[in-house]
Amino acid sequence: MADTLHLAADPVELTAALVDVPSVSGDEAHLADLVERALTGQTPLEVTRSGNAVLARTNLGRPSRVVLAGHLDTVPINDNLPSRLENGILHGCGAVDMKGGDAVMLHLAATVLEPRHDLTFVFYDCEEVEAVRNGLGRIERDLPEWLKADLAIVCEPSNGVIEAGCQGTMRIEVRTKGVRAHTARGWMGVNAIHAIGEPLRRLEAYEPRQVDIDGCLYREGLQAVKVGGGVAGNVVPDEAVLTVNHRFAPDRTPAQAEQHLREVFEGYDVTVTDMSPGALPGLGAPITGELVAAAGGTPVAKLGWTDVARFAALGMPAVNYGPGDPLLAHTQQENVPVQQIRDCADVLRRFLS
Amino acid sequence: MADTLHLAADPVELTAALVDVPSVSGDEAHLADLVERALTGQTPLEVTRSGNAVLARTNLGRPSRVVLAGHLDTVPINDNLPSRLENGILHGCGAVDMKGGDAVMLHLAATVLEPRHDLTFVFYDCEEVEAVRNGLGRIERDLPEWLKADLAIVCEPSNGVIEAGCQGTMRIEVRTKGVRAHTARGWMGVNAIHAIGEPLRRLEAYEPRQVDIDGCLYREGLQAVKVGGGVAGNVVPDEAVLTVNHRFAPDRTPAQAEQHLREVFEGYDVTVTDMSPGALPGLGAPITGELVAAAGGTPVAKLGWTDVARFAALGMPAVNYGPGDPLLAHTQQENVPVQQIRDCADVLRRFLS
């Protein structure tokens, strides 16, 4: 395991070094120490620490600022350490989600010494666990001035394509009520599980929207993710609960998405249990246009929810851009083509220099 | 708490004494000791013990034998002890299910000294818990000759009406399969919870049979008793399981009932998880006719499943006959009108003497 990170050398080697320092959510301290030590003393960076997060920024008086963010933590190790480089593919826990992106950020922090924009780098903790533990949320509360910028780039894996904005997500519970009875005299009761059939029918018949915003196509979704009910093997149940996850395009606010779900499940008891707003792609801003130009290709919609939405909520355009296939995230086989790491570093260097 | 049971005295006082000896399933030893001590030495009874069950029988060489059965255990005490007699109603845990019936049996054992039929009394344990612990099942395995008879009377509460036979019960699991996917890309998956909507629709539309056998009307039922499914809040689930309880009239064998359920849920993966056959009312047998005549009134169908079915499976007519309203069983308020205890004792004395 590395005890020093060599930021200015090869970003691929740096990715491998980061992968080889285990940093499962909650256990990022050692990796954060290494990152802090490597960034401290890099001219022209101001470095600070927040728990297991490390922040660094330039203060060059540029007219605009770009924040680049990446989480240091990974999902639990699954017999996939240490890293292994094979045929140009780097394998290992966190290779794709998202130590490749972290390596690109660290490499840029050490090598882009005269950036066109002031830069803020945020390496944070606990992204892979429940939202209340998310290090970026803590930084937003404790060090809000560190997150102010004109553009945010979250270096989560995006196959090296600019993913713009992100969809919102909302979870609701649809609850049916009945009357308990012994199943030997079932006609004396009202079966709440039978009653959940109609909401399921509506889910089956539901046709999700596809929404084009700034040329990005967002595909919405409405999926049951849990169903539960039942008292005992001989009792007509008096309650059933269906949990539904809605992914909604960023042209809708959470309030509008909730209103829509209340219409879909009209006549039923609906409770919102979880909600994260989407983020508009913000491709109209000139600074975003510069990034898109540097990356080449066409931006696409981000369908999953990422911390991009936190930055969008702070009022700046925010995109997702990083090496690796997001479909491999959280799998035992996660890996990243090393060429994507180099390409990402080159694109961002072009944009920032 | 009584340390001696006075069998020959008032069956109502005996019921109260039995109620006042707690005997939650598994903890019947003390009550079984008292019952064993009270029966031992009663002429002309042969007494034996099986775990926390007590058995007693006459061997008078009569041409026919009647077995009377009652369980000694109760559901957990629910702030409803000791017993309380108020306005001719005896309250307390087990009053209706089924220490009133036990008291009638004990009183008859001590006072019907010249019965027309040989008699077997079975006081058993663990009826209120899972079937594998049921004391009657153990007796069937260990002391099968003790259960042989020409008629079985299970003294479970029946409002003092002869309840003939009983319905069968079967539990099945209906399972749907799908394909997991992230809900952000829901179209890549197949939602197994959505797929459980169609079986629920069939349950909603199901019209249960009503079957007349020997003048007894059996009302069948088909009820979902449990539903479950779900992987995580952001995953399209790949499995859902619906548990359904079918109560079927005793004109159908378990195999026929299963075949029926497979037709109802045709196209779905169906697994039988639990089954107890019903019992035909057997009202055609002369000895049953004598009991019905002694009781007066018209027999009715037993809708719930009781240990009557175990005796029916041994090849004898079997009925349910005891004091108290079965709808009060297992409730905190369980109680029995004392007149029903006396009436039951009188009817059975008339039949047996």
UniProtKB/TrEMBL annotation, chains A, B:
It is an enzyme of class 3 (hydrolase). Residues 168-266 form the Peptidase M20 dimerisation domain. InterPro entries: Bact_exopeptidase_dim_dom (IPR036264), Peptidase_M20 (IPR002933), Peptidase_M20_dimer (IPR011650), Peptidase_M20A (IPR050072), Succinyl-DAP_deSuclase_DapE (IPR010174). Its EC number is 3.5.1.18. SUPFAM superfamilies: Bacterial exopeptidase dimerisation domain, Zn-dependent exopeptidases. Transmembrane segments: none annotated. This is Succinyl-diaminopimelate desuccinylase. Keywords: Hydrolase, Metal-binding. Gene3D superfamilies: 3.30.70.360, Zn peptidases. The keyword Metal-binding applies. GO terms for molecular function: succinyl-diaminopimelate desuccinylase activity. PANTHER family: ACETYLORNITHINE DEACETYLASE, N-ACETYL-L-CITRULLINE DEACETYLASE. The keyword Hydrolase applies. It holds the Pfam family M20_dimer.
